[in-house]
Amino acid sequence: MNSYFFENYKKLKYPKLNNKTNGLRNAQLGAIHSISSFFTLNKTKAAVIVMPTGSGKTAVLMMTPYALEANKVLVITSSKLVRSQVSGEYSTLKTLTKINVLNKNIKKPKVFEMKSLYKENHYNKIENSDVIVATPQVGLSLSRVENIRKKFDLVLIDEAHHVPAKTWTEILENINKAKHVLFTATPFRMDNKTIKGVFVYNYPLSQAYKDGIFGEIQYIPIPNEPNKDYLIAKKAESIFLLDRKKGYEHFLMVRASSRNRAIELQELYSSETILNLQRVDSSMSSKTVDKIIDTLREKKLDGIICVDMLGEGFDFPNLKIAAIHDPHKSLGNTLQFIGRFARTNTENIDIAKFIAMNDEELVIENKALYKSDAIWQDIIIDLSENKINKEEIERKYIGDYSIDKNEQIDPDLNLSLHTIRPNCHAKLYKVTGFNIHGTFPEICNIAYGPFLNEEDNTIVAIGKGYEKPKWYAGNLIKNEENHLYIIHYQKETRILYIYSQVKSECVYEQIVESFSSNFDKIPKHEIHRVLGNLKEFEIFNSGMQNRFNESGESYRISAGSDVSQAIDPSTGRLYSAGHVFCKAVQEEQRITIGYSSGSKIWSSSYANLKDFVSWCDLNGAKIFNSEMVVKTNTNFDFLPIPKKLEKYPQNIYFADLSGESYANPPIVYDNTESTLGIITDLKIRIINIKNDMITIQASIEEKEQSLICDINGNYQSVNEEILIYEGRQKISLSSYLSSYPLILRTTDDIMIQGNEISVGNPEAIVFTSDNITTIPWKEKYDTNVSIEFRTSKTRKKGKSIQDTLREVLFENAELDYIIYDHSSGEIADFITIQSKETEFEITLYHVKAMSAKNYNSSIGDVYEVAGQATKSIIWLKNKSTFLNKIRSRRKTSHCEFIRGDYETFLKDMKLKDKVFRGKIVMVQPSICKSKAIPYKIQEVLAATNYYITNSGKVKTFEIWGS
């Protein structure tokens, strides 16, 4: 037996509307033919029909079962009110017969308006009906019954922008063998979830305006004053009365944001206006609401007060005045609301008027819609079409992704790339030999994908991660996590962008190694260009690297509304720019953008996949543009930006770990996985300097390792003796230093890190011998200055420098505590604490033996101890840092108190009324004040004094020589 719609298909007509007869509008003709055409080739995909509110999509929805010769149809509507309207339309075919699509005497379909959740007594009604109309929850209950859902071969969704919501989605998934047609005026959602389906017809709002379907609209602003509700109400009353005098049958809707607000406004309009209004809200029964709506349609009211109950699907074209006391915040809801008033399908109506408070701070899709001079006719059309066109472009873009036929997809995952919304964040590399068909490293544990877009050089994949809960100390329980990975290669700039939720240097490097043959990080002077072509900067988070004290306050972070105000020219002489995060204006739109020296860029915004790739490309084009000039016009411009390192200067005398290494020092192992200490225990020496490379020796305990750093800041080592525990992986020291490069300093105020060089103020470095103190090593103390400390081998060679220094320190009765700490990872060889009236003076003594026969003749005697002295500034950063280091050294049986005791020392240091002051002494007998000091040694001594005294943590630097 053939179905009702099959039998009546031949009776369906397609008359065109003209001046003489009723018929279908252009939008309706285009939509119904697009649906018919689409399902000649597609049986399972969903068709999405985009038609503006008021363009007649209800008629298209009713025609669809006839055009597709459906057997049984399920119609899902957004509300009970619309459910009742659609049921009535199908039962009477009033609209289709009025526009001559069907004859008036045609047999009507059997319609079941399903008002409650599915029960067994519904079965016969469903079996005997051609059309079942239900709201989402009712439709869901029906779709879960297997022998019922199989009966439907067509599902029609009204207001389809609700479809991604869980209920709607499950209905479509349950009835997945049927054809799906989704109707909407706004195919986008606030939650950015996708409406799954193919856009088969999009009737633009501008065309609806040209065709006279979408009428004239006008925004009437009210001054932003405390009594705005009263002003809006009185203006609404005035416009209503004036329009009625002009002969227009206009009615008013008062829009509130909540039931309580609606009650409040009802009292206001009742007491301050003569308008006859009634309130409609969700607390009322359906019967009460229907009665009020009927009274409105009978034109016995002047209007209604409501929240959102009469939004979608409500058809009363005489609603022409909107008093917007509480505006919608989303574009979709705003367009739906405006569409109710822009209808033109009735007589005696004029333009639609919207009365609302002037609020330039309320921005919808980057448009100040409620600005006093806003022209809604143009703005609304542009907003709608731009948003819909963007949605269509993104769908096409997502369609360009494909998955390798050998990859396995979990059918239960049901994940669409259209639903991916990464936060804008990427690690950048300059690469050669990009291979889009590379394989993700095992550490990513890819479980879904990868998806490839070969046209756009983009890869998307999802990996599984397993983390032990923080509350659990065992190994049995682990939480499963899904980690998103996006790789994009910008061919023009050769920049590879990596988005990874696991922000580990180890993961980043393994990924870039898997997809390229060679790579380098983007230097700071290039990545700084992402701030180009922006204006109206507000810098609310920035980092400044101390060019003199990488190991003390190596990095100063400031946060606030505009932290640049705290920067002045003197700050620029002490610091260079680190990371920055700011607000700015880009092409009249407010954005956020940030970058770090770790070759990362980020924003606080989230984006769909296409927009994320566009965001990467936009910033990459800036980075690639060597002519780009960055000017923030804030005090941030005082901070110097590093330049590219072209060759290593020969006067590098000191190398130390980066600020990141000191902030989060990882554990150090040998290649047998025995723990050696932490990375700050490493001793680092410069062995050789060439134009294009520098050789460095790192040592800890008995382990030594030589490393070569090239001109690009990449470290390599032949034998990896030292390993670093970084993240969850053990990596080589060379890999670690390539990610966190050492800081190299010259004697003329140049700082080098990675492949960047920062030039300071060499004129400020001036040698003086005033800080050199003469110690009578041989004359008074009979010291063998070639012996640094006594061992079993040197015991018979006389008194060591350390022996003498101990004696000298004990001669000073004002010293409250004397600590001996000579060993690997030391604070200094000796530490003294003197408690003064207003301060604690902490002095660190660094000792080095004299290797040369003559005074002032060996630069090597000076280099190492000068480096140790500069590096030790970190321990004088503050009282807490100093005490924590003492405690950790004590745990390993170091920091021997040779005057005073440890417990008393701790009690004394807790006194809060005393300032913490630092002092560093370099003990080197080879330096003689009374003899001529060669220029090379002067350079090192002057630079050491300059760096230490400019650190802000050490008030005095002294040299104890001969």
From TrEMBL:
SUPFAM superfamilies: P-loop containing nucleoside triphosphate hydrolases (SSF52540). GO terms for cellular component: cytosol. Transmembrane segments: none annotated. GO terms for molecular function: ATP binding; DNA binding; hydrolase activity. It comes from the Bacteria. Gene3D superfamilies: P-loop containing nucleotide triphosphate hydrolases. Residues 226-394 form the Helicase C-terminal domain. Residues 38-205 form the Helicase ATP-binding domain. SMART domains: DEXDc, HELICc. Pfam families: Helicase_C (PF00271), ResIII (PF04851). PANTHER family: ATP-DEPENDENT HELICASE IRC3-RELATED (PTHR47396:SF1), TYPE I RESTRICTION ENZYME ECOKI R PROTEIN (PTHR47396). This is Uncharacterized protein. It comes from Enterococcus aquimarinus.
